[in-house]
Amino acid sequence: EVQLVESGGGLVKPGGSLRLSCAASGFTFSSYSMNWVRQAPGKGLEWVSSMSSSDSNIYYADSVKGRFTISRDNAKNSLYLQMNSLRAEDTAVYYCARDLFQGVGDYWGQGTLVTVSS
Amino acid sequence: EIVLTQSPATLSLSPGERATLSCRASQSVSSFLAWYQQKPGQAPRLLIYDASNRATGIPARFSGSGSGTDFTLTISSLEPEDFAVYYCQQRSNWPFTFGGGTKVEIK
User: Fold this and answer.
1) Which positions 1-30 of B are in contact with A (Cβ < 8 Å)?
2) Mean pLDDT of the B94-102 span
Protein backbone atom coordinates (compact mmCIF):
# COMPACT_ATOMS: atom_id res chain seq x y z
CA GLU A 1 0.00 0.00 0.00
CA VAL A 2 1.36 3.40 -0.98
CA GLN A 3 1.78 5.70 2.02
CA LEU A 4 3.07 9.24 2.29
CA VAL A 5 3.45 10.74 5.75
CA GLU A 6 4.39 14.39 6.17
CA SER A 7 5.94 15.85 9.31
CA GLY A 8 7.75 18.95 10.47
CA GLY A 9 4.96 21.50 10.44
CA GLY A 10 4.28 23.87 13.29
CA LEU A 11 4.16 27.48 14.41
CA VAL A 12 7.02 29.71 13.30
CA LYS A 13 7.60 33.47 13.41
CA PRO A 14 7.83 35.53 10.22
CA GLY A 15 11.34 35.30 8.83
CA GLY A 16 11.89 31.92 10.43
CA SER A 17 12.63 28.53 8.91
CA LEU A 18 11.11 25.05 8.90
CA ARG A 19 12.01 21.77 7.24
CA LEU A 20 9.18 19.51 6.16
CA SER A 21 9.67 15.81 5.59
CA CYS A 22 7.64 13.24 3.69
CA ALA A 23 8.27 9.58 4.42
CA ALA A 24 7.26 7.29 1.57
CA SER A 25 6.52 3.57 1.64
CA GLY A 26 4.80 0.91 -0.44
CA PHE A 27 6.46 1.81 -3.75
CA THR A 28 9.89 2.26 -5.32
CA PHE A 29 10.45 5.85 -4.22
CA SER A 30 13.53 6.39 -6.38
CA SER A 31 11.48 5.80 -9.56
CA TYR A 32 8.97 8.59 -9.05
CA SER A 33 8.95 12.35 -9.31
CA MET A 34 7.57 13.96 -6.17
CA ASN A 35 5.82 17.19 -5.34
CA TRP A 36 4.78 19.61 -2.60
CA VAL A 37 1.34 21.20 -2.86
CA ARG A 38 -0.14 23.58 -0.28
CA GLN A 39 -3.53 24.83 0.75
CA ALA A 40 -4.06 27.96 2.79
CA PRO A 41 -6.87 27.72 5.38
CA GLY A 42 -10.23 27.78 3.60
CA LYS A 43 -8.57 28.36 0.22
CA GLY A 44 -7.69 26.43 -2.91
CA LEU A 45 -4.65 24.40 -3.88
CA GLU A 46 -1.25 25.70 -4.98
CA TRP A 47 1.46 23.56 -6.56
CA VAL A 48 4.64 24.62 -4.73
CA SER A 49 7.51 22.50 -6.02
CA SER A 50 8.35 19.41 -8.05
CA MET A 51 11.42 17.22 -8.23
CA SER A 52 12.12 14.47 -10.73
CA SER A 53 13.24 11.01 -9.67
CA SER A 54 16.82 11.71 -10.70
CA ASP A 55 16.99 15.24 -9.20
CA SER A 56 17.60 16.56 -12.71
CA ASN A 57 14.42 18.62 -12.96
CA ILE A 58 13.32 20.90 -10.16
CA TYR A 59 10.55 23.48 -10.31
CA TYR A 60 9.32 26.11 -7.88
CA ALA A 61 6.29 28.37 -7.85
CA ASP A 62 7.27 32.03 -8.16
CA SER A 63 5.78 32.65 -4.73
CA VAL A 64 8.45 30.48 -3.05
CA LYS A 65 11.40 30.69 -5.46
CA GLY A 66 14.60 31.65 -3.69
CA ARG A 67 13.14 30.84 -0.25
CA PHE A 68 12.17 27.16 -0.46
CA THR A 69 14.36 24.22 -1.46
CA ILE A 70 13.06 20.78 -2.39
CA SER A 71 15.30 17.75 -1.95
CA ARG A 72 15.08 14.01 -1.63
CA ASP A 73 17.02 11.11 -0.15
CA ASN A 74 16.22 8.00 -2.15
CA ALA A 75 18.12 5.81 0.32
CA LYS A 76 15.76 6.98 3.07
CA ASN A 77 12.64 7.07 0.86
CA SER A 78 12.12 10.66 1.89
CA LEU A 79 11.23 14.01 0.36
CA TYR A 80 12.00 17.32 2.02
CA LEU A 81 11.06 20.97 1.77
CA GLN A 82 13.37 23.48 3.40
CA MET A 83 11.43 26.69 3.95
CA ASN A 84 13.33 29.87 4.80
CA SER A 85 12.28 33.50 5.19
CA LEU A 86 8.76 32.40 5.97
CA ARG A 87 5.90 34.85 5.54
CA ALA A 88 2.35 34.96 6.86
CA GLU A 89 1.11 34.02 3.39
CA ASP A 90 3.02 30.73 3.60
CA THR A 91 0.55 29.57 6.26
CA ALA A 92 -1.04 26.44 4.83
CA VAL A 93 -1.39 22.70 4.97
CA TYR A 94 1.51 21.26 2.98
CA TYR A 95 0.89 18.02 1.11
CA CYS A 96 3.42 15.64 -0.35
CA ALA A 97 2.20 14.01 -3.57
CA ARG A 98 3.59 11.31 -5.84
CA ASP A 99 3.60 11.85 -9.59
CA LEU A 100 1.69 9.40 -11.76
CA PHE A 101 2.97 11.40 -14.71
CA GLN A 102 4.64 14.79 -14.47
CA GLY A 103 2.11 17.04 -12.81
CA VAL A 104 -0.46 14.38 -11.91
CA GLY A 105 -0.55 13.59 -8.21
CA ASP A 106 -1.93 10.10 -7.75
CA TYR A 107 -1.14 9.59 -4.06
CA TRP A 108 -1.15 12.28 -1.40
CA GLY A 109 -0.17 12.43 2.22
CA GLN A 110 -2.48 13.69 4.94
CA GLY A 111 -0.67 17.02 5.10
CA THR A 112 1.20 18.98 7.74
CA LEU A 113 0.11 22.43 8.92
CA VAL A 114 2.55 25.32 8.82
CA THR A 115 1.49 28.48 10.64
CA VAL A 116 3.57 31.63 10.25
CA SER A 117 2.61 34.15 12.89
CA SER A 118 4.20 36.39 15.48
CA GLU B 1 0.73 31.39 -15.85
CA ILE B 2 -2.33 29.49 -17.05
CA VAL B 3 -5.48 30.47 -15.19
CA LEU B 4 -8.20 27.87 -14.73
CA THR B 5 -11.74 29.10 -14.10
CA GLN B 6 -14.25 26.65 -12.67
CA SER B 7 -18.00 27.04 -12.81
CA PRO B 8 -20.29 27.09 -11.07
CA ALA B 9 -18.72 27.88 -7.71
CA THR B 10 -21.45 25.86 -5.99
CA LEU B 11 -23.74 23.18 -7.37
CA SER B 12 -26.75 22.18 -5.27
CA LEU B 13 -28.10 18.79 -6.27
CA SER B 14 -29.87 15.77 -4.81
CA PRO B 15 -28.50 12.21 -4.65
CA GLY B 16 -29.17 10.43 -7.93
CA GLU B 17 -28.97 13.60 -10.01
CA ARG B 18 -26.38 14.28 -12.70
CA ALA B 19 -23.60 16.78 -11.94
CA THR B 20 -21.82 18.71 -14.67
CA LEU B 21 -18.76 20.75 -13.65
CA SER B 22 -16.88 23.06 -15.98
CA CYS B 23 -13.24 24.16 -16.17
CA ARG B 24 -11.97 26.74 -18.65
CA ALA B 25 -8.29 27.48 -19.27
CA SER B 26 -6.88 30.89 -20.19
CA GLN B 27 -4.90 29.21 -22.98
CA SER B 28 -4.78 25.74 -24.49
CA VAL B 29 -3.58 22.98 -22.18
CA SER B 30 -4.12 20.30 -24.84
CA SER B 31 -5.46 17.31 -22.87
CA PHE B 32 -3.21 17.85 -19.86
CA LEU B 33 -5.99 18.42 -17.37
CA ALA B 34 -6.81 16.51 -14.19
CA TRP B 35 -9.72 16.53 -11.76
CA TYR B 36 -9.47 16.01 -8.01
CA GLN B 37 -12.04 15.54 -5.28
CA GLN B 38 -11.49 16.91 -1.79
CA LYS B 39 -13.57 16.34 1.31
CA PRO B 40 -13.21 18.42 4.49
CA GLY B 41 -10.06 17.60 6.42
CA GLN B 42 -8.80 15.24 3.72
CA ALA B 43 -6.15 15.37 1.03
CA PRO B 44 -7.20 15.72 -2.61
CA ARG B 45 -8.01 12.49 -4.43
CA LEU B 46 -7.17 12.06 -8.11
CA LEU B 47 -10.27 11.25 -10.18
CA ILE B 48 -9.39 11.94 -13.81
CA TYR B 49 -6.09 12.64 -15.57
CA ASP B 50 -5.32 13.84 -19.07
CA ALA B 51 -8.91 15.00 -19.52
CA SER B 52 -10.68 11.66 -19.75
CA ASN B 53 -8.72 8.87 -18.05
CA ARG B 54 -10.12 7.59 -14.78
CA ALA B 55 -7.56 7.01 -12.06
CA THR B 56 -7.22 3.62 -10.42
CA GLY B 57 -10.26 2.67 -8.36
CA ILE B 58 -12.45 5.57 -9.50
CA PRO B 59 -16.06 4.53 -10.18
CA ALA B 60 -17.40 4.66 -13.72
CA ARG B 61 -19.97 7.31 -12.75
CA PHE B 62 -17.12 9.84 -12.95
CA SER B 63 -16.15 10.87 -16.48
CA GLY B 64 -14.13 13.67 -18.00
CA SER B 65 -14.14 15.27 -21.42
CA GLY B 66 -12.73 18.20 -23.34
CA SER B 67 -9.51 19.46 -24.84
CA GLY B 68 -7.80 22.76 -25.50
CA THR B 69 -9.47 25.26 -23.19
CA ASP B 70 -12.82 23.74 -22.22
CA PHE B 71 -13.26 20.71 -19.98
CA THR B 72 -16.11 18.98 -18.18
CA LEU B 73 -16.33 16.59 -15.26
CA THR B 74 -19.58 14.64 -15.17
CA ILE B 75 -20.90 12.59 -12.29
CA SER B 76 -23.69 10.55 -13.84
CA SER B 77 -25.67 9.85 -10.68
CA LEU B 78 -24.60 11.43 -7.41
CA GLU B 79 -23.94 9.13 -4.48
CA PRO B 80 -23.96 10.50 -0.90
CA GLU B 81 -20.15 10.25 -0.75
CA ASP B 82 -19.74 12.46 -3.86
CA PHE B 83 -20.68 15.68 -2.10
CA ALA B 84 -17.34 17.46 -1.91
CA VAL B 85 -15.20 20.13 -3.57
CA TYR B 86 -13.80 19.40 -7.02
CA TYR B 87 -10.69 21.00 -8.49
CA CYS B 88 -9.32 20.95 -12.01
CA GLN B 89 -5.55 21.22 -12.53
CA GLN B 90 -3.35 21.66 -15.62
CA ARG B 91 0.07 20.16 -16.22
CA SER B 92 0.66 21.63 -19.65
CA ASN B 93 2.97 24.42 -18.48
CA TRP B 94 4.85 25.10 -15.28
CA PRO B 95 3.69 26.43 -12.90
CA PHE B 96 1.04 23.75 -12.67
CA THR B 97 -2.16 25.48 -11.60
CA PHE B 98 -5.50 24.61 -10.07
CA GLY B 99 -8.91 26.08 -10.59
CA GLY B 100 -10.72 27.70 -7.70
CA GLY B 101 -12.96 24.69 -7.11
CA THR B 102 -16.63 23.75 -7.41
CA LYS B 103 -18.46 22.71 -4.28
CA VAL B 104 -21.12 20.06 -4.88
CA GLU B 105 -23.57 20.29 -2.00
CA ILE B 106 -26.71 18.46 -1.05
CA LYS B 107 -29.87 20.28 -2.09
Assistant:
1) none
2) 97
